[in-house]
């Protein structure tokens, strides 16, 4: 096979990128795929959370009632995390850059932290168990992440190192890092993370049902943090987008993912080690 045939085959197998991040424009209004997929993710996550609340004996409408309490602080936390950890992107022109969320830039760990604070307040306000609420919401949250990641596809962002794998994504020259200007295709890390999140969602739903008699309130939420952080660690090793660095060359999100996974797993193990010892018969 000559070089021209190889290039043609590669082009057919690789993932194309869309020509524009905008769905449509009407005067000053522009509907962007990034915002559209975030909205779709929130809708799907809310639906699944309502189903899980129903299954646990709560009113499923609590999922809808909690949206403003959870989404707004989650959104603010996500943006703050991104701006603080990647401030170099905005240092030269912070206003209005730090507010231009439609161009991308939301950190999931900030979203979880902000959303958790909102959920804690909501649970107190409605007089329900925060841990039960967190367990009900966790599968929907990771499903929302899976859908929202497709906004990165349309923005041509959050891709990984160059690759010659058939599913490599073609990135427009203006969106490639300068050091990879000659590369044709890259790892679609947003896609990897989307698939990972779907699998985590299914795993959480399975564990919640299969081991319901063994689980304690809060276990599903902790398992979500552990599984997502482990998966995110490996995805992060492929990414080449700008990120905050520790020690000059270590991606900060690798550190955050490691700490989050270890803490969640330690808490899970400690909770069940304690409960096992409490159940041990005396002699």
Automatic annotation (TrEMBL):
It is found in: Cell membrane. GO terms for biological process: lipoprotein biosynthetic process. A 1,2-diacyl-sn-glycero-3-phospho-(1'-sn-glycerol) binds at residue 149. Pfam families: LGT. InterPro entries: Lgt (IPR001640). Catalyzes the transfer of the diacylglyceryl group from phosphatidylglycerol to the sulfhydryl group of the N-terminal cysteine of a prolipoprotein, the first step in the formation of mature lipoproteins. This is Phosphatidylglycerol--prolipoprotein diacylglyceryl transferase. It comes from Rubrobacter radiotolerans (Arthrobacter radiotolerans).
């Amino acid at each position: 096979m000559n070089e021209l045939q190889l290039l043609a085959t590669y082009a057919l197998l690789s993932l194309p990128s869309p020509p524009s991040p905008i769905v449509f424009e009407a005067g000053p209004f522009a509907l962007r795929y990034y915002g559209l997929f975030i909205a779709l993710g929130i809708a799907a996550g809310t639906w699944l959370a309502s189903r899980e609340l129903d299954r646990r004996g709560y009113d499923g409408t609590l999922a809808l009632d909690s949206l403003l309490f959870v989404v707004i602080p989650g959104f603010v936390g996500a943006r703050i995390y991104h701006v603080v950890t990647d401030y170099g992107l905005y240092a030269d022109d912070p206003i209005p850059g730090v507010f231009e969320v439609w161009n991308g830039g939301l950190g999931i760990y900030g979203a979880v932290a902000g959303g958790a604070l909102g959920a804690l307040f909501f649970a107190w306000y409605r007089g329900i168990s925060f841990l039960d609420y967190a367990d009900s919401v966790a599968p929907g949250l990771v499903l929302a992440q899976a859908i929202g990641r497709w906004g990165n596809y349309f923005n041509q962002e959050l891709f990984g190192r160059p690759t010659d794998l058939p599913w490599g994504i073609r990135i427009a020259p203006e969106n490639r890092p300068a050091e990879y200007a000659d590369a044709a295709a890259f790892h679609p890390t947003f896609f990897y993370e989307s698939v990972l999140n779907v699998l985590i969602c299914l795993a959480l739903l399975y564990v919640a049902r299969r081991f319901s008699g063994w689980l304690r309130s809060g276990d599903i939420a902790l398992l979500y943090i552990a599984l997502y952080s482990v998966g995110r660690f490996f995805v992060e090793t492929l990414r080449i987008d700008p990120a905050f660095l520790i020690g000059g060359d270590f991606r900060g999100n690798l550190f955050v993912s490691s700490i989050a996974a270890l803490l969640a797993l330690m808490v899970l193990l400690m909770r069940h080690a304690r409960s096992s010892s409490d159940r041990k018969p005396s002699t």
